[in-house]
User: Fold this.
Amino acid sequence: MNASIKNIRDYSGRPVKRARVFTESNATSIADDWFNRNKLWSVEFKSKTWSKLGRLVNKINRDAISSLLECNVKDVVYSAYCGCSCPCSPGYNVYNTNKNGKGIWVNIEADDAELKPLNDYLKIADLELQVEIIKHTSK
Assistant:
């Protein structure tokens, strides 16, 4: 895995007990491409397939962030509201790090071995999504 810090903004004037990490990740791009290809924005139900895909991506990103910031992976928590009170800037809240009070922009490039669980799931994700769509449209 190749992870690097692109930018750091200091919020030390505020009493903040966490770092906010915003990522650009090849794993996220793969999942986003699948989301757009399947037009998931148009479904009227919460997709379990999409949720599982998101969990796989978050694991890859959380592992990279914990390694880069030298913290416990349990202290890296995904939040759709990381950077704002609306879900416009999702990211990861990182607790118990020496970077508390900072906004950190990170580039993550997972290698093939790290992407394997994600790519393996994508092989069956289209079928699982179709089953979900049929289930929800037959009601």
User: Anything to note?
Assistant: The mean pLDDT is 93. The chain is about 45% helix and 25% strand. Helices lie at 26-37, 48-69, 112-137.
